[in-house]
Design a protein that fits this description.
10 helices, 341 residues, globular, Glutamine Phosphoribosylpyrophosphate, subunit 1, domain 1, homodimer, 39% helix, 8-stranded mixed β-sheet, alpha+beta, 23% strand
């Protein structure tokens, strides 16, 4: 009898243990992008391809380690983007493209899916890591979006690393500006200038972004960019626009965008994916496909997104020839991609 | 027999005429706001109240006349907002509030519901009518959002009226700045500064906006503001953010927001109303209630919206003590309001 009771207790405990739901902690994951655009294998040297893959792997592993150690998704997003910002390979931070006036004006934004708090900066020229400034705006001001000199003043007040604007000089990017301006001059002379110049399409990509889910079930998303080569008139793209370039909500998903910013603003791309999940019950994958392959493409917009839902499912959706991207899913599996799927 | 045929023909023609659907032309309408906030009757003199009502009526009738004469909803929105911008009563154009540095920095945006094209400007200091500049950005550049000096350069290039910054000086608004700064100084001395100071709540309202539907069934929406008294660090609110401050889509609705901009950005307020209609099938009225009374209020945000659906139904929803507002519906009925419904 005693043995039978023991057996029953053992069976009961065993069943209870089996039925305990996997703790939220098992579901951490991370996904990043380094820009979408006309990225073709025939134009890429094996050395450059290896450099991109290596930097993407370094960045995604940095964020994953933070999550694995119990760090927050906000920390993972910020630190991962810092790695990409510090590399000259991407159009963000160090590798930012030049404006029409030969300057580097950087934009970034970050959002916390738990609180729906957000921070963003536009047009900063002396901030080494704009994503870190965006986070300071979110956490240390009552504002969401700060611009230009005012944002830089706030950066100094809050101990954000300031660099001389010459830090952002890279020969490659400066040559791209000269090429863009030469092309513009020729067009002006020939009278063939077009607002929707296809050349623009290849000179606005390279934005970086990250979405992460931490062990506490909190989603965060962030995006950082140098904008568009030869941009004029203080143009601001989608990167610092919450809802267009970045969105995160623990109830639905986190999204970071990259592409032709004007179309992403007009389509409210990042929030639209969340809205399709919340209001129409679509999966993350289907919502992203609907927005990028149907709605964005219909208007003529190019680009892509990386996104993650609250269960840690990952989607990387783009309508361009390629998108620099990497992820480590909830099973710990690493994937790195550049060209079309 | 001949008479009988005649009678049948007459009946047939009559029935056909009756069954012809009302042409799109019968459904034109317009709605405007002049800001939401702690607007209480006990604080308002009868003279000032009369001034507000008279200006709201003048503005809404201006836009209505354009629509009645077959003009576009974009024209109606721009010209109506021009009337409000040219009045010192509202925090937009002439009556813009002062920044922390004693400047007037203006934001505006406009969206075309037919094409989903949009234009916006942030932080301009010399443009008499920012909404007209926003429209020029939409129609004459490949961009959506231009900021500060760059936007002003674009304004000059495109023949937009430029004024000396002193044009925006009004004694009332300057006194508000001095009061705000005095309060801030006292708080710093007493160590009681709070980011979420309730004082801020009453110093960021007065934004103006308009939504119109024209005889061709095209919706348009626009918003214009002077921002927040004593604002620092180049803060940008929701007004120039497509999806937050302004949204228009012929398939759903047009929306113009006013209120605590940071909350409107985090909630993607204007687009969210459209998304609830498109994805969840809500009526305009219920979608606006859901977003303003539930979602915005839940986060702690104050303010309101005016909106119109593609049939010309009008909603004016706010969670503050009042909102300056006026409309002329599809039946030609004028309403003007200031306090709670």
């Amino acid at each position: 009898m005693k043995n039978a009771v023991c057996l029953l207790v053992i069976i009961f405990v065993f069943v209870q243990c089996k039925s305990v739901k996997a703790p939220a902690g098992e579901n951490f994951a991370i996904v990043i992008h380094g820009g979408a655009g006309t990225i073709l294998k025939k134009n890429m040297s094996p050395e450059l391809e290896a450099q991109y893959k290596s930097k993407l792997e370094e960045a995604v592993k940095m964020g994953y380690a933070i999550l694995k150690n119990g760090g927050s998704s906000l920390d993972a997003v910020e630190k991962t983007i810092n790695v990409l910002e510090d590399s000259p390979l991407f159009n963000a931070g160090k590798g930012a493209v030049f404006t029409n006036q030969g300057k580097n004006e950087l934009d970034a934004s970050i959002m916390d899916g738990k609180t729906l708090n957000a921070g963003a900066v536009a047009g900063v020229t002396t901030v080494k890591n704009p994503i870190s400034l965006a986070r300071a705006v979110m956490e240390k001001s009552e504002h969401v979006l700060l611009a230009r000199e005012g944002a830089e003043f706030f950066a100094k007040e809050n101990g954000i690393e300031i660099v001389n604007p010459s830090y952002f000089y890279t020969e490659n990017r400066y040559e791209s500006l000269l090429k863009a301006q030469e092309k513009e001059k020729n067009e002006l002379n020939s009278g063939s200038t077009s607002f929707y110049d296809p050349f623009i399409k290849d000179n606005k990509f390279g934005t970086v972004g990250c979405v992460a889910l931490d062990k506490n079930g909190n989603l965060a998303a962030g995006t950082s960019t140098g904008g568009m080569t030869n941009k004029k008139w203080g143009r601001i793209g989608d990167t610092p626009i919450i809802g267009a370039g970045t969105y995160a909500n623990n109830n639905t998903c986190g999204v970071s965008s990259t592409g032709w910013g004007e179309y992403f603003i007009r389509n409210v791309v990042a929030y639209d994916i969340s809205a399709l999940m919340e209001y129409k019950g679509l999966s993350l994958e289907n919502a992203a496909k609907e927005v990028i392959q149907k709605k964005l493409s219909k208007l003529g917009g190019d680009g892509g997104i990386v996104a993650m839902d609250k269960e840690g499912n990952i989607t990387m959706e783009f309508n361009t020839a390629g998108m620099y991207r990497a992820s480590i899913n909830t099973k710990g599996e690493l994937t790195i991609g550049i060209y079309e799927k």
